[in-house]
Amino acid sequence: MNASLRSSSPIWTGRFWFTAFLAVGIWRFWLCTQAPTETSDLYRHLGYCKQVWSLGPGIYSTIAADFAPQFWTNFWSQQGYIYPPFVLLFFSVFSGLGLGLFWVKAVFTICDLVSAYFIKKEYGWFAGFLVFAAPVTVWNGSHEGQFEPLLCVLLIAAIVLARKENWLLAGVLWALALHTKQFAILLVPFFAAQLIETARGTSRSLPLLRFAGGVVLGSLPFLPFYYEAPLLWFAAVKNQTLMYNPYHWDVWTRSHATWNPNWLTTWDGLSSYLTLGVTVLLMVRRSARPADAIKTSPLAAFTILLKSLNWGQFWYVIAMPAFVLALPPLRRGALMLLILYALFDGNSVMHLLGYRSYGPREHRETVDRFTECLFTCDYAK
User: How many Å from the N-terminal Cα to the C-terminal Cα in the chain?
Assistant: First the structure.
């Protein structure tokens, strides 16, 4: 290859990926301007979380019907707010300021961009692009407004900081992730292995104390909520009495598929099987190095849990890139897993292609209300 061409190729590579990211970013922000059509979760979050301004931690002693006839109380009216307090406070900022659905979805889109940046630094441009352009988060994050991109970026930031041995801040961010969604607990083996590795030959007590101190600092703002509802962190378990999970082990008898078409049950079920298979293979290949096997276990645990839930949703998988980043240096294995992540959910792929003639949808009146609330909204109405 000509020397001048070789020297200019990184520039062209950077320009190509910048253009690709820009195109996907424009697409995703355009999706943010559309009303959710498949779920009402975002509007319910914003409506319920506005109540924290008047009730404070007492919000966890209520059910949605207590605030009728506000529009958001039409969704899951007999259920209280079951999500951890960082989610509550996050949404309360937007609803308290009267900001509409677009702004929340835009923040989730930016969260994915930040996650993609850190993945790119570890595994290259293609890997980062797979994270930012994955249909499961493009649809569920930018269009529907599910908050898993927030969880993912918190976990990724905690992993990056732990590798840089900034244990105090890593602990703070992991604590925020713990108070966002319970999946965060699965990273415990990664932090344990990282502490052992980085403190090899020196005292491990100081890094451990810093990490523990960060977790305590990150948890302090939420203590009043746990005082009000001591079992709050386990509240989501109540939903496990329900039966629906597109990734469930049972692909063949479709016991958890309910409304899913056969092709969707097969797609989502087998994609999770493939992910688990690749993860187990990586663990076996790294078994000679216990620390590496331990760092692979969070992804295996995440996939097993994803497939074992009685009640699960398409968007739960959005946290997967964080568990891929926790892996030991395995570039080819990580790329394979991120390709699987990009193809993981058939529902998101089909919706983005415009094929939406199956499955439940929100009523026209509901979508019209969401459209009115895209940029500003009074959630008390």
Answer: 66
Q: How far apart are CA 95 and CA 91, in angstroms?
A: 6
> Are the CB atoms for 215 and 174 separated by under 8 Å?
yes
Bridge partners of 244, per DSSP, are: 311
Q: Bridge-partner residues for 318, per DSSP?
A: none
pLDDT at 89 over 90: yes
Q: How many residues does the chain have?
A: 381
* 337 within 8 A of 275, measured Cβ to Cβ: yes
- Global pTM reads 0.95
pLDDT of 8 higher than 70: no
Q: Which residues contact 60 (CB under 8 A, 6 or more apart)?
A: 80, 81, 225, 228, 229, 232
* Phi-psi region at 122: left, alpha or beta (left = phi > 0; alpha = psi -120 to 50): alpha
Contact 93, 81 (CB under 8 A): no
Contacts of 354 by beta carbon, 8 Å cutoff, 6+ apart: none
Helices (H), the chain: 3-32, 41-50, 52-55, 85-96, 101-123, 125-133, 135-137, 148-163, 167-178, 188-198, 205-219, 223-228, 262-285, 290-308, 320-325, 331-342, 346-352, 364-372
Phi/psi-derived region of residue 201, left when phi > 0, alpha when psi is between -120 and 50, beta in every other case: left
CA 81/CA 25 separation, integer angstroms: 32
